[in-house]
Design goal:
284 residues; Cobalt-precorrin-4 Transmethylase, domain 1; 3 domains; 5-stranded parallel beta sheet; 5-stranded mixed beta sheet; 11 helices
Length: 284
């Protein structure tokens, strides 16, 4: 782009972690563009994706393919590049590097070799989606859920003990099945689904786990989505009072498992959550 002013500055030798747009190519800092232009080599996930950005800003720098499938074997080659006193940038296909993207192995090896690492902050789907959600002030970022159900159940158990909002990445094709699972294991929480953030077809869908499936029936489920779940504290406090009253009234009349199932269905909480509440009441 002709109107972008590139600053004439001397850069320190090292690895620059450069944040790039998550969709809209205009969402990049002047500093990031300067770093990329002055780099000797840019490490990237997919050369085709990165080339679109670099061509848009007329940046002609050698690209080195660095992704999850060649991460380990590429480290030695990259360390050799640093021995030649080069300026190297690392970018992901979109957003801030190392956020659910390759790079951790490289970072660890670079630190062992006393090579300086400089972060160039910028776009991130995590912070963009969280700011749109408007839930609690704190959040827990998990990344992509495990592929196996058994492992996901352990993660849901972990989520159920958190008092903060929860952010995950998800292949859009899995959205419906994962929402059903989360409703079963986490109860009816508020949810924000951010699809194609900053792009032409950006779609932000809000609701709760109980009704969100109706809202996404017409949505084309391609690519990846960012999900923000509200914390336990965002549930209706009056509802908790009602549950406690019913536990008090029914715990001596019903078996714990039957009572948990009944209350979970009635109040749209997870069975595990209700079961734990009942056990706490029985100890009193």
């Amino acid at each position: 782009m002709e109107n972008i002013k590139f600053i004439d500055q001397n850069l320190e030798k090292g690895l620059y972690l450069v944040s790039t747009p998550i969709g809209n190519l205009a969402d990049i800092t002047i500093r990031a563009l300067n770093i990329l232009k002055k780099s000797d080599i840019i490490l990237c996930e997919d050369k085709r994706v990165s080339k679109k950005l670099l061509d848009y800003y007329d940046i002609k720098v050698q690209l080195f393919s660095y992704h999850k499938f060649n991460e380990k074997e590429s480290v030695e080659k990259i360390l050799e590049i640093f021995k030649k006193n080069k300026i190297v940038s690392l970018i992901s296909d979109a957003g801030t590097p190392l956020i659910s993207d390759p790079g951790k192995i490289l970072i660890n090896e670079i630190e062992k070799n006393n090579i300086k690492i400089i972060s160039i902050p910028g776009p991130s789907a995590v912070t963009a989606a969280f700011s749109l959600a408007g839930y609690s002030d704190d959040y827990y970022f998990y990344g992509f859920l495990p592929k196996k159900l058994g492992e996901r159940k352990k993660v849901y158990e972990q989520f159920s003990n958190l008092e903060s909002s929860i952010i995950i990445f998800l292949p859009a094709r899995d959205l419906v099945s994962i929402i059903k699972e989360m409703k079963e294991f986490l109860g009816d929480r508020q949810i924000t689904i951010a699809k194609e953030i900053t792009k032409i077809h950006e779609n932000i869908i809000k609701g709760n786990l109980d009704n969100i499936l109706d809202k996404i029936k017409t949505v084309v489920l391609k690519g990846e989505v960012t999900i923000v779940l509200s914390s336990e504290a965002n549930k209706n406090k009056d509802q908790n009072i009602d549950i406690n009253k019913e536990i008090l009234d029914l715990s001596k009349k019903m078996k714990t498992a039957d009572l948990a199932k009944y209350l979970a269905k009635k109040f749209k909480f997870s069975k595990k959550e209700i079961y734990q509440k009942i056990l706490i009441f029985n100890k009193k």
